[in-house]
Amino acid sequence: MKSHELTALPTHELASLARTARAARTGTRITFSPKVFIPLTRLCRDSCGYCTFATAPRHLDEPYLTPEKVLGIASAGAAAGCHEALFTLGELPELRYPQAQRWLAARGYVSTVDYVAAMCRLVLEETGLLPHVNAGAISPDDLALLRQSAPSQGMMVESLRDDLPAHRGAPDKIPARRLATLESAGRLRIPFTTGILVGIGEREADRVDALTAIAASHRRHGHIQEVIIQNFLPKPDTAMRGVPPCPPEAHLRAVALARLVLPADVHVQAPPNLADQDGLRTLLDAGLDDWGGVSPITIDHVNPERPWPAIEALKAVTEEAGLSLAPRLTAYPEFVLRRDHWIDESLHFAVLDRSDAEGLGRDDPGSIWPEDRRTAANVGPGDEVIQAERRSTGWYSGADVDPMRLIPGTAFAGGAVGEVLQGVRLAQVPGEAELAVLFGARGAEVAAVAQLADDLRAEAVGDDVTFVVNGNINYTNVCTFRCSFCGFSKGPLSLNLRGRPYLLTLDDVAERAVEASQRGATEVCLQGGIHPTFDGEFYLDVVGAVKQAAPDLHIHAFTALEVHEGARRLGEPVEDYLRRLKAAGLASLPGTAAEILDDEIRGVLCPDKITTDEWLDVHRAAHRVGLRSNITIMFGSVEQPLHWARHLVRTRDLQRDTGGFTEFVPLPFVHMAAPIYLKGRARRGPTWRETALMHAVGRIAYHGLVDNVQASWVKLGVNGVAQLLAAGVNDVGGTLMDENISRAAGAAHGQVLDDADFREIGEIAGRPVRPRTTLYGRPSGE
Fold first, then answer.
1. In terms of C-beta density within 10 A (0-12 exposed, 13-18 middle, 19 or more buried), how is residue 325 classed?
2. At residue 700, what are phi and psi to the nearest 5 degrees?
3. What distance in Å separates the CA atoms of residue 764 and residue 730, rounded to the nearest whole number?
4. What is d(CA 717, CA 729) in angstroms, rounded to the nearest whole number?
5. Among 221-225, 291-295, 527-531, whose mean pLDDT is lowest?
6. DSSP label at 347?
7. Which range is least confidently modeled, 141-145, 185-189, 240-244?
8. Which H or E element spans position 510?
C-alpha cells in the first residue's frame, strides 16, 4: 500500500498494521534513554509561535551555562545512573544577539557550536555521559565538528509546509534548510534523530510527506536512527496559546503512519511526558518502540510544565502491554555495533564503556564513572585495582557490590522469547537463533527464562547444591602468548599490572599440593602461563610431583592450550600426549582457554592462541582417552549474544558425540586490570542480567547432556551466586585456596571460602549444600 493510501484507513486498522510491523522488527522490546537535560543556551535567532524555551538576554543571568553548571548537571545525572547528556540550545544565537557573541569571544569560542563541542568533551571526560546534541540546522562543518565529541546528533524537521504561521520569523525552519542538514548528516555518517511536530496547522497528508522525505534520506544514507512524533500542546505567553492542542487520535495516527511509512530499521518515538497515563498505552498500541529520553534529574526544559513520568511507572505501562523496557544509549544498537562506520574513533571506548552485549545501555542500577585506567599499573600481587576519586556503584563482575535482585521475580514472556521457552517445554532443542533470542530477554522475560532453567535443574539433579574442596596452583605467570584479556600473565621481564614474573619449582608445587591436602582438599587445580622454557615434559613432571607428594588428590589440570602446546613442542599427537599425562596421574581437564569458541572473537581476544577447532579437538581427544573435562565461557568483553549461542551449540555438539563434559562454568569477564579494557577496546564485563541469563540459558541449551551448571563465586560474590541458584545453577565451584587469576584481573572477592561459607549460600537460597568430588561423586567418609 502506498504511503498516502494509508491515510484512508480507519484508526484501529492503521494501528493494528503498525503493531504488526513493530513486532516484526523489534519484537516486544521498547527502549528509552536515561538522560539529563542540559539547556546550554536559551537564546535563539528564530521566533517560533509555540516555543517557550527561547528567550531574550534580559531574562537570563548569562547567555550560556558556564562549564561549572554544565558539569554540575552532568555529574548529578551520572550519579543517578543516566547514560545521556542531552544538549539543547537555540539556533545560532550569536547571529542575533551581540551579548552571545561577546560572551563566546571573551572565552575563546568562535561560535555556539564551538562552545557546545567543548562542553561535550568536558562532560564525556569527567562523567562518562554520552552527549547528544540538538543544534538545529547547521552547516556540514559544524556537524563534522560535533561528530568528534558526540556519538549522535539531532534536529526536528517538524513539517515541510513552508506557509505555517508557527514558523514565521524562523529562518532556520525553512524546509529546504532542514532537509539539507539531514542530508549533510547522512553524508557525514552521523547517527541522527529527527521528527515531526503534529498539530501546528498541517494536514495528515503533510505529515506523510515529511515522513516520506525522511525515509528517502535514510534510504540514501542509512543514518536516521529514530523519528520523534511530537504532539503540539499550546503554552501560555506564546503566539499560539489559543490554538487547540493536537487531538490524541491525530497523534496516534501519526505514530502509526510513521511506523508504516519509515523503513523498518528506523525507530519511532513519542515523548512520554506529553501524554497522560492512558495515552501512553494508546501510543504503544499505535506501534511506538521508543520512549525517548527520560530524566530522573532534570525537567524537560522545552516543555517545563510537563514532568517526566517515573521510569518505574513507564516500565509498568510497558509491561502491562506485554512488552519489555530496556535502556539504550544516545546511539541505537544498530550504530553502536557498527561504530567503526558511524561513530568517531575517539568516542569508541566511551560508547563501549556504557554498552551491553547488544549495544544497548547497561541496565544495572547505580553510577558508572570513568575509571582512571592509569591507576591499574604497578600494584602489588593480591591488591585490588586502585580506583581514584569517584567509584562506580553499579554491579560488575569481580566488584564488591551486590547485584540487583532479578531472580526469582514476576515471570512473563510473550513474543519470540515466549515462543522459544514453549518450544523447550515441548522438548524442542533450541539452535543458535533461538538461544540468541533468550539472551535478549528483558524484564519479566528474564525471570521466565530463569524459571524454566530452574525447573530443568530440579529435573536433572534435584535440589542439592554442591561444591568441591580444592586448592589452586598457578605455577607460573610468565606466558609467551598475548591474550588481550589476561591480567595474570607476564612477559619474562614484565613488571606491568600485578606483581612480578615467577616460576615455581617442582618442590614448590609439591609443597602446595601437600598443604592443600592437609587442609582437606580432594582436588588440586593446576594452571599457568606458557613459559618459553617449557617443553611437554614439564607438564608430565608437574603431575608426577603432585602425585608423589599427595597421591590421594584428584589432579584437575592443564587447559587445552597447555595440552596443545605440550604436544606440539614434543612433536607428538595430542591424543598420545594425553595418554602419557593420564598415566602420570592427570585425572581431568579444566575447560578454560575456551574464552569464546568463535574465531572472529578469538581474533580479537587471543589471536595467537589455539583456534576453536583446536580447543574442541583437545577435549575430544581427552574424552577418548578417558579424561573428563568441563565447558567454560568467558563472556562480556567484545562479543555479542550470537557468539555466545555459537559457543553453546558447538560444545553441545561435542558433548552429544563424547559425553565427556561434567559441567558448564560461565566466567564473566573481569575488566578492571584486563589489558584490552585498559587499552579502551572492551566493555566493563557483562551486566547482571546478562550474567543471570548465561547461567539459565546454559542450563536450557545443555539439558539432557550436561547435568551440572556452576556459578563462580570469585567473580560473582556470595549473594550473586545465591541468586543464581534460582536460575538453573546447582554447583558453587570450589574453595579455591590460592586463586590468583581472577584477582589479577581486578576481582575484589576473597581468596578462599570454606564449608560454612558455602552452607550460608545455600541458606540464602533455601537449598541443602554438600561437598562433592571433581566428577560429582560423594567424597569418601561424607
1. buried
2. -65, -45
3. 14
4. 14
5. 527-531
6. G
7. 240-244
8. helix 506-518
Cα-Cα-Cα-Cα torsion 772, 773, 777, 779, nearest 10 degrees, comes to: -80
Which tens digit of pLDDT belongs to each residue from 29-85? 999 999 999 999 999 998 898 988 889 999 999 999 999 999 999 999 999 999 999
- Dump the DSSP string for 250-288: HHHHHHHHHHHHS-TTSEEE--GGGS-HHHHHHHHHTT-
For residue 374, pLDDT beyond 90: no
Would you say 705 and 654 are in contact if contact means Cβ atoms under 8 Å apart?
A: no
Strands 628-635, 586-589: pairing kind: parallel
Please report the sign of the dihedral spanned by the C-alpha atoms of residue 200, residue 202, residue 205, residue 207.
negative
As a whole number of angstroms, the distance between CA 500 and CA 513 comes to 22
Q: Which of 548, 549, 557, 616 is nearest to 586 (CA)?
A: 557
pLDDT at residue number 383 = 36
Name the pLDDT band for 373 (thresholds 50, 70, 90): low
Confidence of residue 1 (pLDDT cuts 50, 70, 90): confident
Residue 494 CB burial class (10 angstroms; 0-12, 13-18, ≥19): middle
Cα separation values, 29 from 128, 240, 710, Å = 26, 37, 30
Taking the C-alpha atoms of residue 605 and residue 594, their distance in angstroms, rounded to an integer, is 11
Q: Is the pLDDT of residue 420 over 80?
A: yes
- pLDDT value for 488: 63
Residue 523 amino acid letter: E
- Asked whether 657 and 448 are in contact (CB, 8 A), the reply is no
pLDDT tens digits for range 615-638:
999 999 999 999 999 999 999 999
CA atoms within 13 A on the CB side of 531: 19
What contacts 152, CB < 8 A, 6 or more positions away?
A: 130, 132, 190, 191, 192, 193, 225, 330, 331, 335
C-alpha span between 18 and 412 (Å, rounded) = 23
Strand-pair partners of 230:
197
The pLDDT tens digits for 226-273 are 999 999 999 998 889 999 999 999 999 999 999 999 999 999 999 999
How many whole angstroms separate alpha carbon 782 and alpha carbon 766? Answer: 21
Whether 197 shows a pLDDT value over 90: the answer reads yes
Question: Dmax over Cα atoms in the chain, in whole Å?
Answer: 93
- Pairing mode of beta strands 192-198, 224-231: parallel
Enumerate the β-bridge partners of residue 379.
498
Confidence of residue 737 (pLDDT cuts 50, 70, 90): low
- In 397-522, beta strands by DSSP E: 465-468, 470-473
Q: Is the dihedral of CA 158, 342, 292, 6 positive or negative?
A: positive
Instruction: Report residue 411 as a C-alpha cell.
Output: 515471570
Sequence-separated (6 or more) residues with CB below 8 Å from residue 348: 339, 340, 680
Structure confidence at residue 387 (pLDDT): 52
Q: Which residue type sits at 159? A: S
Nearest to 697 by CA among 763, 646, 764, 762: 646
pLDDT tens digits for range 298-313: 988 888 888 888 899 9
What residues are paired with 524 via a beta bridge? 471, 555
Q: How far apart are CA 661 and CA 591, in angstroms?
A: 9
User: Residues with Cβ < 8 Å from 102, sequence gap 6 or more?
Assistant: none
- Per DSSP, helices labelled H in 659-771 are 675-678, 688-701, 713-724, 741-744, 755-765
